Amino acid sequence: MTEKTFKAGDKVKWDHSQGMTTGHVEKKLTSRTRIKGHVAKASKDHPEYLVKSDKTGARAAHRPEELRKA
């Protein structure tokens, strides 16, 4: 299985409860990071990506398997 990787500035899309949304990758997270009271349990072995929504401007951490290039 090939690991999905993204870099800062990549346009991505993902599913959520209101449907599909798009945004841009801000950075790769490789350590535990607190975002708006939530702790993203990212690590070097299991990175997550900080993504900013194009629609709302909200930032959230997403696992690579949740994201697709837009």
Automatic annotation (TrEMBL):
Record domain Hypervirulence associated protein TUDOR: where: 9-67
Domain of life: Bacteria
One Pfam family of this chain: Hva1_TUDOR
Coiled-coil region(s): none
Matching Gene3D superfamilies: 2.30.30.1060
InterPro entries to which the protein is assigned, alphabetical: Hva1_TUDOR (IPR021331)
Biased composition range(s): Basic and acidic residues: 42-70
Region annotation (Disordered) ranges: 39-70
Protein name: DUF2945 domain-containing protein
